[in-house]
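[stage:ingest] chain + small molecule (5-phosphoarabinonic acid)
[stage:ingest] validated
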Amino acid sequence: MSYVQLTSSCFSDVLGTHGLDIGQFAALLEKTKPALETMRMQHADGSLPVLRLPEQTEDIEALMPIASRYREQFDDVVILGTGGSSLSGQTLCRLADVGFGPREGAPRLHFFDNVDPHSISAMLERLALDRTGFIVISKSGSTAETMTQFLVCLKAVQDVVGKDNAVGHFTAITEPGDKLLRRLAKNHGMTVLDHDPDIGGRYSALSLVGLLPVMIAGLDAKAVREGAARVLNPVLAGEPPEKIEAVVGAAISVGLATENNILSTVMMPYVDRLADFGLWFRQLWAESLGKQGKGTTPINALGTVDQHSQLQLYLDGPRDKMFTVIMLSCAGDGPSVDPALADDKGLAYLSGKSVGDLMDAEQRATAETLIRNKRPTRIIQLDRLDETVMGALMMHFMLETIIAAHLFGVDPFDQPAVEEGKILTRQYLAGEEG
Ligand code: PA5
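[stage:predict] done
[stage:export] tokens:
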């Protein structure tokens, strides 16, 4: 398996009244059975295509020429899009670049997901636009932020390379049909790739939305899907709920919320390569479950950084949170502290230790301290972090979210409440105040 999930420190036999009662947990597991059956049917008839993606490879082959062209032609590639159209690619591509440059042979990738005028001006001024490619991603093809990003970037590139040459700098990903982004891109003669209408933005990591950036970054897209398949297979094979890690996680989260009033969930990986994973999870969990007064509030954290920021609150503040600490086996990894330089008795404990030794000790200490303070804590243990493990983690949390939605009684695939703000934004832009 790509990871080990340890959940014993979420239950009342370890945490007393602060943990989930095992009987209530068993009842929730039982309630997941219809959802699992529905998923098997949806996989069989193809009506929930996200469940079919892990077994597919032909679409990845078809993307290779585009990925190769972007790798060869450009020094910088900007992915325009927001929400689910951006976060999955950002999360996956962190495997290749933690901020100090891309892998050899790959361009620098930039995920541009906000509409801050200062940032977009800085980007357009500082990138060499004649050597910059753009991938424009919008499932609906009409999101105001993405359309604005697209139109201003198109104009800037046209100004540098000319209208005809600008066409080759852009590829659009959107739903089939009469969509605004598709119309515009087609009118300019740009390549347009299909976004499956039945795969929602926040569930699109394993589709071309997440995997085209992955391929441009020089990562192995097939391995991402293989990892996802390993997590999905027990569901498809009809394993009982208690044998499916994502189902166990969902029952614990929902049980702690409904029975113990634990209404926030902290995702705390230790490795930098999972820093964006916390943001991706936050969107997935929040937008899928926060409906009709239900759901729990996701909080992202990064150890060891947040030990110096949020940990005091986590250990000693309100007892309203569950914790998922993601640890990587890293003892002995990275450079070591030279004993000759740590020649002071105050530094003796660090002398000769590697950076990985320190991270290993800190992640274990944080989890143990949370448990001693009777805070419900799930540990996800990784012995390595690569494309397969990332695919497995993403599939785990997509399944966990869908099952949690079933237990809460909400639809994981819609987001009705955000529409009001979108309508108001358009009114303001049209000059219709109030
Ligand atoms: O997950 C979702 O459905 C949303 O976050 C969308 O991804 C986001 O609103 C962007 O939508 P679109 O891809 O249609 O531009």
